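Sample 3 of the quickstart, ligand phosphoenolpyruvate:
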Amino acid sequence: MDALKDRRSTIDQIDRELVELLGRRMAAVREIGAYKGQNSDAPLHDPKREHELFEFWTSEGARAGLSSLFLGRILREILAHSRRDQERHLRPSSSSRATGLRVGYRGAPASTSDLTLDKLLPARTDAPVEKVGFETFSAALDALESGEIDYLLLPIENTLVGSIHEVYHELARRDVYLADEEVSAVEHCLAGLPGATPERLLTIRSDPTTLQQCSRFLRTLVGVTAEGWYDPAAAAASVSEGGDADVGVICSPDAASRNGLHILEHDVSDHRQNNTRFVLLSRTAEHVDPRLPAKTSLILSVNHRHGALADCLQAFARHDLNLTKLESRPLPERPWEYLFYVDVEGNVDDERMKAALDEIREYTGSLRVLGCYPCRTGGEPVPALRPRKVVEAAPAAPTCEVTDQAPRVKPAVGNDRTLASLPESGRRSIVRVGPAEIGGQRFTLIAGPCAVESRRQIMESAEVVASAGAQVMRGGAFKPRTSPYSFQGLGVEGLRLLAEAGRMVGIPVVTEILRVEDIDAVAESADMFQVGARNMQNFELLKALGRLRQPVLLKRGMSATVKELLQAAEYILAGGNHQVVLCERGIRTFETATRSTLDVSSVPVLKELTHLPVIVDPSHAAGRRALVAPLALAAAAVGADGIIVEAHPHPEEALCDAEQALSPDDLRDLCASLRPIVEAQGRVM
Ligand code: PEP
Ligand code: MN
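Result:
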């Protein structure tokens, strides 16, 4: 017995030395990592050097009588760990943070999310981390957006159940970015209190997805009820606290042991291979060192041009970029249209990626770059696309602060062009509002009252508008009035009435949005959002509309230059929503004979600068009924894509802008006089 003890103490001594040596090796690795962090020219991976290392280990190992297979496995582990450790130095802002980080996850302690954070965080930060569990995805995202936490880890897809649409759905509409990814193997075991046996269990708790993944096993247990819980680890905690040996749980082995439960059966999942991919979210887009293999995630919808999806995919292929994921999802608000989740291997700062994103904008109705992050799926590291210097032009903002200056993902367009710029191809965008296409061959007529006033008024208006042949109906529910004593609109009730009227005559509706808080209500009722002149530079509103996938009619501010109008549009485009129509509605000049001065020249000027459709509002420019038609004709003559005019079934009774409202007859006459001018432009009415 003593002899065995002696031999073991020899092993203990050797292990101590081994661990000590590994520690020293890691310290040396870190020093090199710091050097690589400061010298962006230094290669991150040196295949020649790695090859030499393997050779060295093999020959040394042979002399010591060790198998090269065995040593190779150890060395691969060491190198993988070292690479990961060095990454910290390539992300200066987060690694040098002295104060602690708060990082959120969905679930309870010892859930797969929690354990995944333990794997992911060491590669990102030295700072002490406080982990915070949340019950729902949306509560966790609220905490991230409000700055309560610095990062958030959420599951995004699973090898058994596919994409987690609830998370994608939230990502599409939140102002957050993907900063990293991690894959974790999920192991489901059946656990219970000490003394519990599988036969005695009456109830088994877990989250619905886990229960679904173990359905075959559950069917073998007769008379057992499956009970849904928000998270398997939380279910384990509840079983532990409840003290009832009839209740079991399906959770990870870690969650079982952390909660003092016994494992009654291992691996109860229907499939042995069960992996979940998680993403780490942050409030600002982070830049990935060009030497690291990176991935870029996108959410996009394609426009209705024939072959748009194929063109999109070809753009990536042309630039030699590999797609690792393409999944489509129906858009509930637009039947038979789809949203695509796309992952592309490559860095968003790489010229090839910029060029591809630039090209696909032509084919997409909306495009949101969810983020660029180090690629951790797949086996051996893929070499970075094209090593070059760390981009200095766009420094990453302090990673963990809420700041309005946080860099958004910069437009992936070359030189000084913007997302709104007319591309070299000269190709112009068409914005679809229901069946109407603004910017296409047909000149668009949008008409309707200034405000929704009553059920009767809006229903009558709808008849007038539809019989005049308008493609879209307007009507304000929230009215921005110069005087607080003027009629302010019917609000949500007005939205409801407008939607009903539009449905009655079968044409889409546009209405003005004044506040971010009303976006959901307007999105439910209207087909297009209007941003009025007074809100053209309400940047928070523009940013929020950028995250939507509904078209926006952006009116020029009364004292805004053409450039400022385009910059306002850029806010919406930068958020990923490309469906923007610009509207010239007159500007303030010294002239008082008209309500505003219609800047007719802005139309051809805008056409030179942007691919976005441009329409004209002669009503608010003129302020007087008699001037609306001549200005509308001028708009058509200078190449506008359409007009938006105010019309009322009984103009004299209008509660708002009565002097400029066209009567039903006026509207019909206007259409008749527009036709020859529109046709002379090579378009149709
Ligand atoms: C409107 O269209 O109802 C409106 C208020 O217009 P503008 O924002 O151009 O003044
Ligand atoms: Mn008006």
